[in-house]
UniProtKB/TrEMBL annotation:
The chain crosses the membrane at residues 89-111. This is Penicillin-binding protein 1A. Residues 1-75, 716-758 are annotated as: Disordered. It catalyses: [GlcNAc-(1->4)-Mur2Ac(oyl-L-Ala-gamma-D-Glu-L-Lys-D-Ala-D-Ala)](n)-di-trans,octa-cis-undecaprenyl diphosphate + beta-D-GlcNAc-(1->4)-Mur2Ac(oyl-L-Ala-gamma-D-Glu-L-Lys-D-Ala-D-Ala)-di-trans,octa-cis-undecaprenyl diphosphate = [GlcNAc-(1->4)-Mur2Ac(oyl-L-Ala-gamma-D-Glu-L-Lys-D-Ala-D-Ala)](n+1)-di-trans,octa-cis-undecaprenyl diphosphate + di-trans,octa-cis-undecaprenyl diphosphate + H(+); Preferential cleavage: (Ac)2-L-Lys-D-Ala-|-D-Ala. Also transpeptidation of peptidyl-alanyl moieties that are N-acyl substituents of D-alanine. GO terms for cellular component: outer membrane-bounded periplasmic space. Keywords: Carboxypeptidase, Cell shape, Cell wall biogenesis/degradation, Glycosyltransferase, Hydrolase, Membrane, Multifunctional enzyme, Peptidoglycan synthesis, Protease, Transferase, Transmembrane, Transmembrane helix. In the N-terminal section; belongs to the glycosyltransferase 51 family. Residues 730-751 have a biased composition (Low complexity). GO terms for biological process: cell wall organization; peptidoglycan biosynthetic process; proteolysis; regulation of cell shape. Residues 32-43 have a biased composition (Acidic residues). Gene3D superfamilies: Biosynthetic peptidoglycan transglycosylase-like, DD-peptidase/beta-lactamase superfamily. It comes from the Bacteria. Residues 403-618 form the Penicillin-binding protein transpeptidase domain.
Length: 771
């Protein structure tokens, strides 16, 4: 039966083979090796429903065949281990890159959405700079937040942009705002432990400086990149580089290459050489640490790195590198220095009152002669360096003014770097006898002449008894002699002749702006004034009687040339008559020729002036003039401590002479107004010469027997002796007492004591002895 079943099956199979080939489910067909597809009973849907599961024996009997098929088919399903690994790595890298890109895009979108609309982006205005120039156009100083004007690339030294590109962003002209190669290099260096580098381009640094805070966050970095793209799209490469160079911080309060060049080399960025450009480019990495003002060695070492980078990129040759290394400065000054800085401060104090708030770059043309400025500073330092220490004089100031009031030179102190206080303008000091010309000019206006005679003798005004500096007296003298010899007693009589109020009015008319005290001691300069206003007031005598309003600003204009202000001192008012001016000039010439200011003589030039010394030599002044300049000089100490017998005819007169000789070098001598001649007065004193001769002691009062007896027995009183002093002439009833008033200067003497050289009273024993 079994064989018959098999035979029927075989026959049926042969019959069906003619029509189609049925799949076999046990054993392998002849197509098995070529087919990739085969099914078991379990794989057929019908088998699961109606076909009985094969027996355990059938399953076991088919297992060896499946193992053989599995072993023969394994090589066909594997492509090789290494290739498969690489393929999987590429696949996952692509997947990761896609997701990373999506994430980065999301971050950019998020942080970008937190920024203002790009249509509102604009380059913020650069803080305005004030460029202050001398009469020849050279720069005295720059003032403002940046400390220097903005320059275009073609205005600055070509070495500067080359150096900054070489060391900071060598692919600046080829990238699109972000340098992928530079960023990758920075990442690799940082991960491998090599010197840390930043991946920011110059465009990114500019974006950060213009718009962003210095904090290191992911948000700021994303915004920096977006802003860099915007900058690159809106501006050219040259414009971006110029903006960067004009705004980057170079240390020591210098922003921009012009400020840095002025700060470190005292020159414009237009004139910077290769070595200096390399030093500036090196500062960008760490401005404070590499500043030549702080560490010149570190600055020079960094500059050499910059030079090597410039050579590697073909900007310079080996020979230029060697030359540049010898050009690198060794040390910068610790602060802005030079007397011109006092002028710059003065300009900034006045500027807003002339043009209002400074909102754009301005150019201020001053009246300062830079050559005279240097000579003035040198003369003060020469005298202080030679005699200052031994005479306890630590400070000095000078101001020089022409006939129009234009300040030609101003030195506010010994060293601006040590002290920025302007002693020529802001300090108020007693002028001492240098105030006397106002007293004499008021007397001349009242009708007196240089030949009017006064008695130089002890005098009492209220309870004040002025003394001459040498405590000696000359008897009858002319006003010309009294001024030349700076006789205090005559000045005190003159102030009472016309009244203190009239002296004050004249002083204010000539240019003294400080409030003055209307008392008798004003004759000897007890009211405080500034050196500048005192000097400007003397200029009214020099120019023939016109007010010389002191001014330092000549014109203010924008960088484009629009004039915002121009001074109007061309038509000054007349403040004294020509006669008074001429006579005062001739009288003050005597101070230099034969009086207390002999140390101020200028060979070949007529010069006039007046000395001034305050109590205990706390202040010493000399103010004088030629037909060209009026100059005032002060010596003293900031804390008011006395000097060692320094008078106005000493250190100040010597410094005045040194400066004025240098200032007049190469000029043809010209006479003073009035040519040094006195204008004859109507009373016939025109031919009377100035009083000459050595000072004489005070004449003894006539001796009486009552006086002698009183002296012997002590009955005389000091009051009786004091009342024998001649009173002030003229308005004697206006003599005022000055108890508790201003302390007179040193050349006045003790305000409460009588003259120490008054003659000894004759006693009865003297008469008996024939003495």
């Amino acid at each position: 039966m079994r064989h018959m079943g098999c035979g029927r099956s075989t026959m049926a199979a042969r019959g069906r083979s003619r029509d189609r080939i049925e799949p076999t489910f046990s054993g392998r067909s002849r197509y098995e090796e070529d087919d990739d597809f085969s099914l078991d009973d379990d794989d057929r849907i019908a088998g699961r429903r109606g076909t009985k599961r094969p027996s355990l024996d059938a399953t076991r009997s088919g297992a060896p065949d499946r193992k053989r098929r599995s072993k023969r088919g394994l090589p066909e399903r594997q492509d090789g281990g290494l290739f498969s690994f690489i393929r999987r790595m590429v696949y996952w890298c692509i997947v990761f890159g896609i997701w990373a890109g999506i994430g980065a895009a999301g971050l950019v979108f998020y942080y970008g959405s937190r920024m203002p609309s790009a249509s509102t982006w604009a380059i913020p205005d650069r803080p305005p700079n004030v460029k202050i120039t001398s009469v020849d156009g050279s720069v005295i100083a720059n003032r403002g937040a940046t400390g220097g004007e903005a320059l275009s690339l073609d205005q600055m030294s070509p070495y500067i942009p080359e150096a900054i590109i070489a060391i900071e962003d060598k692919r600046f002209y080829s990238h699109f705002g972000v340098d992928p190669m530079g960023l990758a290099r920075a990442v690799v260096n940082n991960l491998t432990g090599q010197p840390i580098q930043g991946g920011s381009t110059l465009t990114q640094q500019l974006a950060k400086n213009l718009f962003l805070s210095p904090e290191r966050t992911l948000e700021r970095k994303v915004q920096e990149v977006l802003l860099s793209f915007w900058l690159e799209q809106k501006y050219t490469k040259d414009q971006i580089l110029a903006m960067y160079l004009n705004r980057v911080f170079y240390g020591s309060n210098a922003y921009g290459v012009e400020a840095a060049a002025r700060r470190y080399f005292n020159k414009s960025a237009r004139d910077v050489n290769l070595g200096e450009a390399a030093l500036l480019a090196g500062l960008v990495k760490a401005p404070s640490r590499l500043s030549p003002a702080r560490d010149p060695d570190a600055a020079n070492a960094r500059a050499q790195v910059v030079l090597q980078a410039m050579r590697d990129q073909g900007y310079i040759t080996d020979n230029e590198v060697k030359t540049a290394m010898t050009q690198t400065p060794s040390k910068a000054k610790s602060y802005w220095s030079g007397a011109g800085q006092y002028v710059a401060d003065m300009v900034m104090d006045e500027l807003s009152g002339l043009v209002g708030e400074v909102k754009e770059d301005l150019i201020v043309d001053t009246t300062i002669d830079k050559g005279l400025e240097k000579k003035a500073e040198q003369s003060l330092n020469d005298i202080l360096g030679k005699d200052g220490a031994k005479l306890d004089a630590s400070q000095a100031a000078l101001v020089s003014i022409d006939g129009t009031g234009a300040i030609r030179a101003l030195v506010g102190g010994r060293d601006y770097a040590e002290s920025q206080f302007n002693r020529a303008v802001k300090a108020k000091r007693q002028p001492g006898s240098s105030f006397k010309p106002f007293v004499y000019a008021a007397a001349l206006e009242k009708g007196l002449t240089p030949y009017s005679v006064f008695n130089d003798a002890p005098i009492r005004i209220g309870n004040w008894t002025p003394e001459n500096y040498e405590k000696k007296y000359n008897g009858d003298v002319t006003l010309a002699t009294a001024l030349a010899k700076s006789l205090n007693t005559v000045a005190a009589q003159l102030v009472m002749y016309d009244g203190p109020e009239q002296v004050i009015k004249l002083a204010h008319r000539l240019g003294i702006e400080t409030e003055l005290q209307p008392n008798a001691s004003i004759a000897l300069g007890t009211s405080e004034v500034s050196l500048m206003e005192l000097t400007a007031s003397y200029a009214a005598f020099m120019n023939g009687g016109y007010k010389a309003t002191p001014h330092v600003i000549r014109r203010v204009a924008t960088a484009e040339g629009k004039v915002l202000y121009e001074n109007t001192y061309d038509n000054p008012p007349r403040v004294v008559s020509e006669t008074v001016a001429a006579n005062m000039n001739a009288m003050m010439m005597g101070t230099i020729e034969t009086g207390t200011g002999k140390s101020a003589k200028i060979p070949g030039w007529q010069a006039a002036g007046k000395t001034g010394t305050t109590q205990n030599s706390r202040d010493a002044l000399f103010v004088g003039f030629t037909s060209n300049l009026t100059t005032g000089v002060w010596f003293g100490n900031d804390d008011g401590t006395p000097m060692k017998k320094v008078t106005g005819g000493g250190l100040p007169a010597k410094a005045w002479q040194e400066f004025m000789i240098a200032a007049h070098k190469g000029l043809s001598p010209a006479p003073l107004f009035g040519n040094g001649q006195f204008i004859a007065d109507p009373d016939g004193f025109g031919n009377r010469p100035m009083a000459q001769g050595a000072p004489q002691p005070m004449q003894e009062q006539p001796t009486t027997i009552g006086g002698i007896i009183s002296g012997v027995f002590g009955g005389g009183s000091s009051t009786q002796v004091e009342t024998s002093f001649p009173p002030a002439p003229g308005q004697q009833q206006q003599a005022v007492a000055v108890p508790g008033g201003p302390i007179p200067p040193g050349d006045v003497g003790s305000p409460a004591a009588t003259s120490s050289v008054q003659p000894r009273r004759t006693t009865l024993l003297d008469l008996i002895m024939g003495q």
